[in-house]
Amino acid sequence: MFSSKLLQPPRFLHPLTVSSLCSTALSSTPQPFIPPFAMTRTLSAVSTPPLKSIPFLLFLIQIQIQLCFCASQSIDMLVLPLKTQVVPSGSFPRSPNKLHFHHNVSLTVPLTVGTPPQNVSMVLDTGSELSWLRCNKSQTFLTTFDPNRSSSYSPVPCSSVTCTDRTRDFPIPASCDSNQLCHAILSYADASSSEGNLASDTFYIGNSDMPGTIFGCMDSSYTTNTKEDSKNTGLMGMNLGSLSFVSQMDFPKFSYCISDSDFSGVLVLGDVNISWLMPLNYTPLIQISTPLPYFDRVAYTVQLEGIKVSAKVLQLPKSLFVPDHTGAGQTMVDSGTQFTFLLGPVYSALRNEFQNQTTHLHLLRVLDDPNYVFQGGMDLCYRVPLSQTSLPRLPTVSLMFRGAEMTVSGDRLLYRVPGEVRGNDSVYCFTFGNSDLLAVEAYVIGHHHQQNVWMEFDLEKSRIGFAQVQCDLAGQRFGVGL
User: Which of 96, 339, 366, 482 is the most buried (most CB within 10 A)?
Assistant: First the structure.
């Protein structure tokens, strides 16, 4: 999710809920299972090495109805609870000049913060920089972080280099409050916001600790979905900014893989050699050093060069895919946005060609309702008989990046709109949308089109790699050890 520049999509958008399966990689002896609430006492008594000494951290992502705890005597891993968070349809109101998405499940990571450690749950967000925790117990949130209970908590002065230099990529500049502390205001494209002071404290992941981690201790927040957002303590920013969680941990890369069947999968922090994974195709990250009004310099930006439907490449000028002098037209890969959105001319060409190649499919009838636009930007929808249990064979759509392609096929191309029925038909919408209808000057590659794709964010070599893989099987492999 991204903050509220016009080109940026919203936060709290991950399609999964998650458990974290953190490989401790600390000992050759089996590790005892530690219940999450017992961890508070255990971690404080254990001397642990810094995160940089650990080869990788692994998170197992699965959707389940109940919390699940498991441990293995043959592998050296800590398994944390899985948690599903469903966001009701319509909970994000549309707002002028803000990108509106529907997020039905969020990906959350349980960990502990402070001395002694306090249990928190954070939404993992590759579209945000600053991680933050709710620190005000006067509001109606189920979980908060209490800085007064942590002896390692330290507020950041507004005169510090952290406040003056490392916040330069914040959409709203950091400021000084009445106590001369660094003050941050974060606003997101779903109209939610959070406000408070920058601080540092010790963050624990598994059996490792990271002292001096910078985060926002937020004492004021507004959300468009209080019931669901109150279940989490805060947000873990994972973009390229210097204050993002992954930047502070200094891991060379991270990867994830999302299943298309049950939203299970894995998230791996760090560099791990996976012998069974097919070679990745890489596309370089695009970086612009000059500040531009519509270019997010800390987003994961790649160069989209074209699109093809089945084998037919859309005949479009290359200039349509290149950011202009204002930065408009950047292509961002975001696991926190559900669907993919394209600039108007490119979307129109794709829409027309996909529609042309599906006219012969008698089970698909274009929804003839000019007033119906799904999620404000998706205006190609079909009527499918309720009795139809599967979709007909659809043409593939391939996104052609510099040096690599991502092919979208099958059910990932049409999304059944929950609760939408016309006569005896359900409604399915094309999973590519028009950014222009949302007043957004950017291409956004959402997580729906990253399903069954191993996604690697190689920060050291400034590139993104991907390969087709059955992510549910990948999850099973990690579930029984490497």
Answer: 339
Of 76, 201, 229, 334, which is the active-site residue? 334
* DSSP labels, 290-355: S--TT--TTS-EE-EEEEEETTEEP---GGGGS--TTSTTEEEE-TTSSSEEE-HHHHHHHHHHHH
Amino acid at 124: L
Active site residue 334: yes
Nearest to 321 by CA among 338, 300, 301, 305: 305
260 belongs to the catalytic site: no
Active-site pick, 76, 125, 209, 472? 125
Decide: helix, strand or coil at residue 31: coil
- How far apart, in whole angstroms, are the C-alpha atoms of residue 280 and residue 260? 19
The per-residue pLDDT for range 409-463, each reduced to its tens digit, is 999 999 999 999 999 999 999 999 999 998 889 999 988 898 889 999 999 999 9
Closest CA to 212 of 159, 150, 137: 150
Burial 443-475 (b: 16+ CB within 10 A, else e): bbbbbbbbbbbbbbbbbeeebbbbbebebbebb
Region 85-106: mean pLDDT is 33
The average pLDDT across 215-231 equals: 65
Amino acid at 367: L
